[in-house]
Amino acid sequence: MDASPLGTSTVVDVPTSGVSWAAIAAGAIITAALSLLLLAFGAGIGLSSISPWAGSGVSGTTFKIGTGIYLVLVAVMASSVGGYLAARLRTKWTGLHTNEVYFRDTAHGLIAWALATVLSAGVLGSVTTHIVSGGAATASAIVGTTNPADLYIDKLFRSDTAPAGSPTAIGADTLRAEMSRLWTASFRETNDLNTVDRAHVARTVAARTGLSQAEADKRVSEVITEAKAAADAARRAAVQLSLWLTVSLLFGAFAACLAAVEGGQLRDGTWNNHILTPRQI
Fold this sequence. Notes:
Elements: E1 3-6, E2 9-12, H1 21-49, H2 60-88, H3 98-122, H4 125-132, H5 134-143, H6 148-156, H7 167-170, H8 173-190, H9 195-209, H10 213-268, E3 270-272, E4 275-277
């Protein structure tokens, strides 16, 4: 066993592993389980705060911001408990400089957080996704599911003069299938219809709805603009969710490290007359 002076202290190189995987695994499992529990609780609270009725429930913006903040809180709370246990349950090292013990405790909290993140993403990912998407699945079961392209085609072929239910009003199935394929393929590539496709769609709309060519062109442009707005809103929502997840992961890692340091301090401290005296760093 080698020893070298460092200031007024002595660093002792102990020939044992600096990583206690049993304590790390325990902390990671606790973190993953608490995350799942808190997500299930948050999903219930979130579903109770929204309503399909006008004037009731929270707004969409408030719901998205609240969801992001809750994700951060879940990460902090679960990671703190897991990091604390990862350091507190570790076997006490003897003969090491206090700075080295401090570093190892911090590393244990970080590793426990990383393992819990991988575990949650891999093993518990499907369960978490099912819980978070439960509200959307319930709403879809009530109102039914539809292809977004079908909605835009309905708006293109909508007619104020043709009787409801007539072939002119709803269009033939083959025509709708052609428009659906054209719309889906074009928007997948450029989020717009090219010149040839736009002209073909406008002529078809004019023929099926009785609109003039100018009115049909205007309708096509309006529906395309609406589709672009919907796609842009979905993109912004995905960006916001990604940013909130990134923030929650960073806060979770930081909380796990701090909690691990606290757990190590309490593990190595002594109780003097019911007053905890932590180790000196």
